[in-house]
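Our preliminary data section would be incomplete without showing what the modeling component actually yields. Below, a chain of 455 amino acids is followed by its predicted structure, encoded as tokens that our downstream tools consume directly.
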Amino acid sequence: MTLRVQILKDKFSQSLGLPFKELLPESAIRLAISELKIKYKKRLFDPLITLWAFLSQVLDDDKTCHNAVSKIITHLAEEEVEIPSTDTSAYCQARARLPEKLLENLFNYSTQILEEKVTPEHLWCGRNILVIDGSTVSMPDTIENQTEYPQHISQQPGCGFPIAKIGVIFSLVTGAAVALCIDVMNTHDLKLARRLYSFLKPNDVLLGDRAFCAYADMVAITKLGCDVVFRKHQSRTTTIRKGKIVGDCDKLVTWYKPKRCPQGLSKDEFLALPSAITVREIYYYIAIPGFRTQRVSLITTLLDKATYSTLEIVGLYGKRWDVELNLRHIKTTLGMDILRCKTPSMIRKEIHVYLLAYNLLRSLMWSAGTTYATPPLRLSLQGTRHHLINFIPKLLAADSKQRLRIYCTLLKVIAHKAVPDRPGRSEPRVRKRRPKIYPLMTKPRHELRKQLQTA
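Predicted structure:
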């Protein structure tokens, strides 16, 4: 057993350790394991091998546990050791033994290391920009998942899938996921956001859509030494007459404390709010064919017009769409939209491993872009994933000198073709491929079976 474990550790450290040696080295994983005082027996699937197998599983197109175990067997096939069983139970039990806190800590560690690579020339007006948004993911229809993450109330029992709501903060510079929280589907974005404010650092600027534009939240963020740029909430009417004009379509306005305590705030928190705050309102018009929005009003706490010009802020909010693309990368490109685990604990682990894998790909894109003078955000995440998967067998077969050369080649091909920048691109929101003409499920499967048997 010890020989097999050592062979696998050598193999995985060669295949995944080199591309991710700066972001997730083996020493960092071992330190996280020791800090949590995780005790484990000498078995094939120890925490280190299980984590590496879990990462390779979410990066692959085939995300089954059978495929993950097959990879383990492949790594041992050419060695003179006993080949493990193809049964997936040992691997699944090993994943279940991984503490949620371990995966959460490793995700936070990957974020911290990648953010440290950002230099002042990559910042916006000397400020680090973070973007926040929420989304949903579905999971297998098990009793445990339905209990913790219930399906939509409009669906009949047995006809839907459990759904979890996730809130994510991304870095606008690196594209990496900075913070994550998970809750039930009907959780408002603001409730998720309030759990994420603790990840903000002084001098950060938080970018978000109108769902986050609330009086109490702007006060809370400014108390952390940060600023915000939000789209104005639709419940606040826009008037040109009020406020101090500081430029074209740019003015300073006073917002007063709400008369009633908003939902989600305690009475003590509500009483601690200031009676009024001064914010900056910028409004502009969009004249691009195909865009549904024609007038946009922005609210920001960046009051100094000399430092933060109107056009700079308008251009910054235009980049808020990057958060939608990042979520699409995680859910569609990597496949996190439909999770596979059957218990809530494993669902949370799976989400953290997906975001960890996403950050590892972003680190490769950052290394490739900075090495070959290509904007990292213009590189293809799907292409990076394909190149990595295809290069891993070569990294395994090479010696130490060849491995470094292959790694440099990997970075070069990742940076070879940048995704074109197409601002203002407009496409009709239609589908060409017709869906199959099966009716939707309106009754549980066992009732439908009875209908077929009696028909």
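The beta strands are 128-138, 163-171, 177-184, 204-208, 227-231, 244-247, 250-256, 276-285, 295-300. The chain has 16 helices and nine strands. Preliminary results of this kind motivate Aim 1 of the renewal.
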